From TrEMBL:
InterPro entries: P-loop_NTPase (IPR027417), Sulfotransferase_dom (IPR000863). Keywords: Cytoplasm, Transferase. This is Sulfotransferase. It comes from Pelobates cultripes. Residues 1-233 form the Sulfotransferase domain. The lineage of its organism: Eukaryota, Metazoa, Chordata, Craniata, Vertebrata. One of its GO terms (molecular function) is sulfotransferase activity.
Amino acid sequence: MQEIVDLILNNGDEAICRRGAIFERVPFIELMCAMKPDLEAINAMPSPRALKTHLPIQLVPDSFWKHNCKVIYVARNARDTVTSFYHFEHMALIHPEPGTFEEYLERFMIGDVGWGSWYDHVKGFWEQKSQRNILYLFYEDLKRNLLEEVRKVARFLNKDFSEDVLKKIAHLSSFDQMKGNPMANNSTFPKDILNQSEGNFMRKGTVGDWKTLFTDSQNERFEENYRKHMSGCSLKFPPAK
């Protein structure tokens, strides 16, 4: 989504969007004190600027809402999220060791992971999307029909492009294209924060990879936990294709 937004804000210009690594073009709010660009540089960025955060809605600064900032939220189904996050945790040196998948899955279900409970996170933005300036998207839809999701984002950002430009943006922001682009794949991310010596940040990018980790008993336990936490919520994830 960071790459999509940067491409849209720059009218699909591939050269401009290779001006720096994605974490420099779209700064990560939670890490602005630990890496460049710092707060001073971010404040000097011209409007409109794009920022990234994993903060749950209750921790999003009030100024976001007071200034009617546009928020694009990407939700991913819980099983693939915990699977991806588990692999990521082995690289993230600023996070605790994940332990076994069994141990990590239990922690995930009670929200004892980075940025807290997945359940509270996805429900928090979902329940506020009609009251706030929020475009709520699903990772599964990005994988199913990237062009259509790019079209939604462009419309949300008040950009009117030809079909050719939209297709170009969708192509450049596809997983395979980004994985081979050092300005988009986080391969230059500071090594003291993200150790990629034994694996890449961009790993598979597929839907349904949870099946490679979950046992039948873990899946049953997780389904019970999921039903309990999501009971009464209208949020439904697209079916895996």
